[in-house]
């Protein structure tokens, strides 16, 4: 059994909040099971990694102050359990997110080649959201 998981996040768009918490939830669950977890954000999903964005959206579409957890809370949980988060530099440029805008939980920048290396490595399993 592999104890390493790479998660590609490309469809979790902040404009569709109901798609955004699940990748972090899966990452948290795997990391809590002592799995080494890396998340690779590409396409519009990189916008979730800008400071303040994930805190402003809620997976069920409920507004702030409702007592519900923000997507940002799910992100922080995943990192707290040991998940490493990477942003695709090409996607960052395409969506106007500069490195200075990234939240402190982001481990760095890594793109397609990095995720593909994980996908081709028999020691790693992959998921895509």
Quick rundown:
The protein is 29% helix and 19% strand.
Question: Key terms for this structure?
Answer:
5-stranded parallel β-sheet; alpha/beta; Hypothetical Protein Ychn, Chain: A; single chain; 4 helices; 129 residues
Structural overview:
With 129 residues, the chain is of the alpha/beta class. Helices cover 29% and strands 19% of the residues. It is built from four helices and five strands. The chain has helices at residues 21-32, 71-80, 89-94, 112-120, and strands at 4-9, 36-41, 84-87, 106-109, 125-128. It has a five-stranded parallel β-sheet with strand order 4-3-2-1-5, sandwiched between helices. Helix 1 (21-32) packs parallel to helix 2. It is globular and about 35 Å long. The mean pLDDT is 94.
List the helices and strands and how they pair.
Layout: E1 4-9, H1 21-32, E2 36-41, H2 71-80, E3 84-87, H3 89-94, E4 106-109, H4 112-120, E5 125-128
Parallel strand pairs: 1-2, 1-5, 2-3, 3-4
Helix pairs in contact: 1-2
How many DSSP helices?
Answer: 4
CATH class: Alpha Beta
Give the topology string: H per helix, E per strand: EHEHEHEHE
N-to-C span: 22 Å
Q: How many distinct domains?
A: 1
The coarse silhouette is: globular
Corresponding CATH architecture:
3-Layer(aba) Sandwich
The count of β-strands is 5
The CATH superfamily is known as DsrEFH-like
The average pLDDT value, as a whole number, equals: 94
Largest sheet: 5 strands, parallel
Class by helix and strand content? Answer: alpha/beta
Q: Level of helix content?
A: 25-40%
Our estimate of the beta-strand percent is 15-25%
Weakly predicted, low-confidence segments: none
């Amino acid at each position: 059994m592999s104890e390493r998981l790479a998660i590609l996040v490309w469809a979790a768009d902040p404009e569709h909040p109901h798609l955004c918490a699940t990748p972090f939830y899966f990452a948290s669950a795997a990391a809590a099971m002592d799995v080494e977890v890396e998340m690779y954000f590409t396409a519009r999903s990189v916008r979730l990694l800008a400071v303040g964005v994930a805190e402003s959206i809620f997976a069920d579409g409920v507004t702030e102050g409702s007592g519900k957890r923000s997507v940002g809370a799910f992100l922080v949980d995943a990192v707290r359990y040991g998940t490493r988060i990477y942003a695709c530099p090409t996607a960052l440029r395409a969506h106007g997110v500069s490195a200075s805008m990234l939240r402190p939980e982001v481990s760095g920048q890594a793109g397609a080649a990095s995720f593909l290396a994980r996908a081709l490595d028999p020691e790693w399993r992959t998921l895509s959201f």
